[in-house]
Amino acid sequence: MVKGPNLAGTWYPASPGALAAEVGRLLGAAPPSAGEPAKAVIVPHAAYQFSGACAASGFARFKTSTATRAVVLAPSHHCGFRGAAVLPADGYATPLGTVTIDTDTVAALGRHAIVRTDPAPFDKEHALEIQLPFLQTVLPAVRLVPVLIGTVRGPDAQALAACLGPTIEEAGTVVVVSSDLTHYGDRFGYLPFPPTDERSVREGLRELDGGAVKLILAGDADALDGYIARTGATICGRAAIGVLLRVRGARGHGEQLCYRTSMDVVGDRENCVSYCSIAFWDK
Q1: What structural domains does the chain harbor?
Q2: Per-residue pLDDT, 45
Q3: Which of 6, 33, 135, 174 has the most CB atoms around its CB within 10 Å?
Q4: Residue 123: alpha-carbon gap to chain centroid
Q5: Closest by alpha carbon to 181, among 274, 281, 68?
Q6: pLDDT tens-digit map of 114-153
Q7: Secondary structure letter of residue 72 according to DSSP
Q8: Contact present, 19 and 133 (Cβ < 8 Å)
């Protein structure tokens, strides 16, 4: 079974040539990568016109990687479930072709109580699919482990990290965590400060998002959970980020590569989403 795309022609081009050109343009405009390839990235998941440039800055850190497997952790936006879900399929298609799924790893993960094997959460999900054309371009032979993260509370956070940790840590594996940052405005039910003017919204978001990014770079999942609880920060991939941080801890180092908001594209200060790209290295 191959999972077909549901974003082609809307969130990214449906034509293989146009999609390849768009992804190539975004990667070509990303800051050059020096040194060792990254082990993991956190990248946003909006349509390419909004967050493609920010996502590309993260994927560019895989250009020299020799990884043969990619674990993609993304939040579930349309289905509610406990823990994680994996996709029982042989491949995941985009206009650029089909990404082979690591079926052995998916089957092994599905045997854990905290993980369900279920195609339904993937049917309409954008957060995972939007990353695949980038992955196909920078790591064309990579095998995919597609994981959607649902509701994670209390001891489930550590249980999920323990379940996914051996796969994430295995040599030859890179990790992509799909997450936007703050969703601001009445549309998202989150107004920590009024949309008085564009400058004040930008400054408020930068401070709010900066507090979260600081804890992410420190590898402190518990502190990030506390920060989100205190501020109400609407970070949709917070549980997926938490998995990565609980597996990695403070090992190695991380770097913020890009930060922008949807205001940079449409100029709407009353309802906007923040995007950030972060890369992690083991040394």
Answers
A1: 2-281 (3.40.830.10)
A2: 97
A3: 174
A4: 18
A5: 274
A6: 999 999 999 999 999 999 999 999 999 999 999 999 999 9
A7: E
A8: yes
